[in-house]
Amino acid sequence: MAEGEIYSFEVKEGEGGERIDKYITSQLGGRTRSQIQFLILNSSVYLNNNVEKNCGKKIKCGDRINLTIHSKPTTLKPYHINLDVVYEDEDLLVINKPAGLTVHPGANTQNDTLANALIAQFENLSSASGETRPGIVHRLDKNTSGLMLVAKNNETHLYLCGQIMERKVKRKYLALTYGVPNPVMGQIATNIAPCKKDPTKMRVVGGAVGKIAVTNYRVLKVFENRMFSLVECELETGRTHQIRVHMKYKNNPIVGDQKYAIYYNFNVGIVSSQVVEEIRLLGRQALHAHQLMFYHPKTQKPMIFEIPIDRKIKSLIDLLQVDR
């Protein structure tokens, strides 16, 4: 296991039959159940020397539980770029992530990620998500721009993750979509799971497959003979590609989305060639995280941040005429 704060428990007689997340919460004290669930889901809990990622796993007498809160210094290489810092204090950061920047290293990216940029610019970052994700509390897709939370210490990190799991963090996005969602205001609640043929894509599934995903939306403006809409989406859950998949599910995929709108055909005959070219030049989904609300870990006061839509998406919107 990685270096860090390590806690060990042995389940005593009379303690068996309880959920592992509830048991650890009662043993540690000072941490919420949602914070413990975050650690379990991020492979920080071992049951009898094996990683346990099932928060509802029932324990039995004699079971041995080890919990690690990572503190090993990161081995990432610094990536020197100018990050747009919207807010900073001793506990956390709010940044405006540019489109095209991957959040943390993965299969196709190594040293040119937000994580690398953070260690180049900030000395103190949390390590609760592991050494390759310093400070990273939640993600944005590579080609989605906008507001992100970054934690400077593990206490803040777990507190913020607990808020996300309890749905106390409010995240609103602006999306330019094809067509007009019907109805113009509503909620999309489905299960989402990886595609069988392409695991880099997600899909809406039925039954007990996948994980529940809930998106609230409302149409703000309608453009160009009802061929485009500006839609505000608010997340209740934070699944991979959630808004992009849900907009496709409504048959209103996000403009420029090269995974979920590539086969969407709109009537280019009644749209100016300049608009068509602007969509081509955008080269990514027209999705921007424009508003973020959470409670500060020390003051418990609500913190609300809002930034204008990304300039490239705004340039495209400015070309469109409002349909009155």
From TrEMBL:
Where is coiled-coil annotated? none
Q: List each copy of the RNA-binding S4 domain by range.
A: 18-80
Q: What class of enzyme is it?
A: isomerase
Gene3D superfamilies registered for this protein in UniProt: Pseudouridine synthase (3.30.2350.10), RNA-binding S4 domain (3.10.290.10)
Q: Which UniProt keywords apply?
A: Isomerase, RNA-binding
Q: What Enzyme Commission number does this protein have?
A: 5.4.99.-
- What catalytic activity does the UniProt entry give for this protein? uridine(955/2504/2580) in 23S rRNA = pseudouridine(955/2504/2580) in 23S rRNA; uridine(1911/1915/1917) in 23S rRNA = pseudouridine(1911/1915/1917) in 23S rRNA; a uridine in RNA = a pseudouridine in RNA
> Keyword Isomerase, does the record have it?
yes
Q: Give the InterPro entries listed for this entry.
A: PsdUridine_synth_cat_dom_sf (IPR020103), PsdUridine_synth_RluA-like_CS (IPR006224), PsdUridine_synth_RluC/D (IPR006225), PsdUridine_synth_RsuA/RluA (IPR006145), RluA_PseudoU_synthase (IPR050188), S4_RNA-bd (IPR002942), S4_RNA-bd_sf (IPR036986)
> What functional role does this protein have?
Responsible for synthesis of pseudouridine from uracil at positions 955, 2504 and 2580 in 23S ribosomal RNA.
Family matches, as NCBIfam families: rluA_subfam
Q: What family does the entry list?
A: Belongs to the pseudouridine synthase RluA family.
Q: What is this protein called?
A: Pseudouridine synthase
Q: Which organism is it from?
A: Candidatus Bandiella euplotis
- Please name the taxonomic classification of the source: Bacteria, Pseudomonadati, Pseudomonadota, Alphaproteobacteria, Rickettsiales
